[in-house]
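Hey team,

Filing this mostly as a record. A colleague (T.K.) asked me to run one chain through the structure pipeline before their review meeting, and I want the input and output archived in the tracker in case anyone asks later how it was produced. No errors, nothing strange. Just documentation.

Input sequence:
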Amino acid sequence: MITVAPIRRLPQVVADAIAAGEVIERPASVLKELVENALDSGASRIDIAIEGGGLVRIIVADDGSGIAEEDLELAVERHATSKIAVADDIAGVRTLGFRGEALASIAAVSELRLTTRTRGSIGGASLHVRNGDVLSRGAAASGPGTRVEVCELFAASPARLRFLRSVATEASAAVRAAADLALTHPEVAFTCTNDGRVVLRTPEGTLRDAIRAVLGARAERDLIDVDAPGPIAIGG
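Output structure:
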């Protein structure tokens, strides 16, 4: 029998944890969102590290445009994004994501450390968030770009852990997400390690370079170039 209870507004931390389920299903989801942000920042190099299937730690570091120090806390709030400003922008999206949910959702179900520096700044800044609560922020030594470290994913949401597969399976899914993004962005150099072992390394080159790195030389030899110019051009 359902117990009748008054309608009440959920505490923000509970609402954020529920909303995180819409975006973050598994470690591979975290990696995909962070790498897409790195790509949207104009990065030419992205370094990824996975530990414990991504549940212990995921690190994504890039050399992109970085985040302004005054925007750090806003970056982990829901519905906050630099990618759209007005409703009409949605019809002309030129980025990989724009809902403004990724960092907020990840921060709601993990311990997140964000270190960043914009290309025109002398120094960097850092932000430390645990399960949606900002623990600290301040200056930090950093090269241009952004480094996001996500630790203890779902540690405060044990029910979510029951829906995950083995550590090896989750790690494999995360690496596959990185490989897919490397293939679709061959102009960006990717490196990915899993528990300290390099499992993916692509050069900053052509699509064939990326395919060779991800699928191997034999797969690359079996491919046929497609180049069909016209009103609707097709290439690949």
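Quick notes for T.K.: The longest strand covers residues 133-140. The chain has eight helices and ten strands.
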